[in-house]
Amino acid sequence: MSHLYPPVENFDHTQGPADAPVTLVEYGDFECPYCGAMHGVLKAVQQAMGDQLRIVFRHFPLADMHPHALHAAEFAEAAATVGKFWQAHDVLYENQNALTDADLRRYGAYLGMRAQDVASAFEGTYDEAVQKDFDSGLRSGVNGTPTLFINGHRYDGDRDAESLVAALRAAIRHA
User: Fold this and answer.
1) What is the pLDDT of residue 30?
2) What number of other Cβ atoms are within 10 A of residue 134's Cβ?
């Protein structure tokens, strides 16, 4: 079966078992209000699916529309280097209206990150990692956020937890 997005790599940010029967890839932007709404939906989906689901997050900052999106993505990458990507991911989505550099420095302190690690994130340290995600999104036809893929196929259905769980369970049955 051909995949419409690049396969999951060891540098991807994942939650859930690597051998889960279904993988959901989200291309997201931490400042995007639709991604913020999807964050709560995906938490509910994870609860419902348990170990049957692996989630992958890839950066797709729409920097032209969202002035803080790139630094937020870079901050999340800095957090990943100390094993705190998903904590940073959650903090960013739960505080979408406060994503200035000062806010990000505060979240870094909250997560126990060193101030210089947060500062270096804004100096381009993680630009390549963010760009790699963005480029894979472009190759996969991503043109907005959030864009979801279930087992390699773009999902354009309803964005509520019930519909998404139904689509994930259908993907497991047809795998």
Assistant:
1) 98
2) 21
